[in-house]
Amino acid sequence: MIPAAGRGVRLGPGAPKALRALGGTPMLIHAVRAMAASRGVSLVVVVAPPDGAGEVKSLLDAHALPERTDFLVVPGGETRQESVRLGLDALPPEYDIVLVHDAARPLVPVDTVDAVIDAVREGAPAVVPAVPLADTVKQVEPAAAPGEPEPVVATPERARLRAVQTPQGFDRATLVRAHGTVTDDVTDDASMVERLGLAVVVVPGHEEAFKVTRPLDLVLAEAVLARRRLNDGF
User: Fold this and answer.
1) Which residue has the higher pLDDT, 3 or 13?
2) Percent of the chain with pLDDT over 70
3) Could you tell me which residues are beta bridge partners of residue 220?
4) Is omega for the bond preceding 167 within 30 degrees of 0, making it cis?
5) pLDDT digit string (tens) for 14-32?
6) Is residue 162 classed as helix, strand or coil in its secondary structure?
7) Taking a C-beta distance cutoff of 8 angstroms, is the pair 3, 100 a contact?
8) CA geometry: angle at 25 spanning 21 and 29, to 5°?
9) Sheet harboring 70-75: ordered strands across?
10) CA distance 197 to 212
11) Fewest 10 Å CB contacts: which of 147, 179, 201, 229?
12) Residue 48: C-alpha distances to residues 57, 82, 118, 126 (Å)
């Protein structure tokens, strides 16, 4: 499942982030292809903006996608959590493993997708790909006003920290229960499962699965895509 209902304001004005072009192709198409590249994925559900399901379906129809994978477009909600829940509601009953992937992570390698699926199949209720942090992290007391100095209150041990990516993988029943139970605003679906007191495990992520959020990220993504095309000979 790919929630793609957000506008991505940090990339500036214009089209929703998922529809921004990367190498001449919308990021959403890259993300859909990345999911469909895994032989473990047989259905990709794209959760569109509430009033944009037709546009997104036309977009998918206009681009070459793997024939062995089915695609379903459903209208989303006002928040990411609501959009994921609507995507779950539309998922046919025969699917018992669900991946939730950011449309803004268009370059995730297929090996990462496969590793997440394998870990859920082996019994983990929730799985997240993640990478070690390169930078030291400081916990601060937020400033009262923007631009003011912020006092440091702690320095977490970096070796125990990970930067989480997507796709995040779940046993379907666990994810449905989480969305039916947790009402707080959380940053990812795995956090909802943590609130249930269930185990969430980490598998190795990949440096190319970064999130395209700022203009500089788009520059980096273009460079990665150009290198891939050079290496693949197309």
Assistant:
1) 3
2) 94
3) none
4) yes
5) 556 677 889 999 999 999 9
6) strand
7) yes
8) 105
9) 2-3, 43-48, 70-75
10) 31
11) 147
12) 9, 12, 28, 24
Going from the N-terminus, what domains does the chain have, and what CATH number goes with each?
Answer: 2-141+150-232 (3.90.550.10)
In Å, the largest CA–CA distance within the chain is 55
- As beta bridge partners, residue 152 has 140
Q: What b/e readout covers 39-57, taking b as 16+ CB neighbours within 10 angstroms?
A: ebbebbbbbbbeebbeebb
- Cα 100 to Cα 129: distance, rounded to the nearest angstrom: 12
Against a cut of 0.70, is the pTM above it? yes
Give per-residue pLDDT as tens, 20-79.
Answer: 889 999 999 999 999 999 999 999 999 998 888 999 999 999 998 888 899 999 999 988
Q: Return the SS3 of 22.
A: strand
Q: 105-131 burial string, b = 16+ CB within 10 Å, else e? A: bbbbbbebbbbbbebbeeebbbbbbbb
- Is residue 10's pLDDT more than 80? no
pLDDT per position as a tens digit, 99-142? 999 999 999 999 999 999 999 999 999 999 999 999 999 999 99
Single out the residue of 225, 13, 234, 226 nearest to residue 106, CA to CA: 225
CA distances in angstroms from 207 to 99, 131, 212, 224, listed in the order given: 19, 7, 12, 11
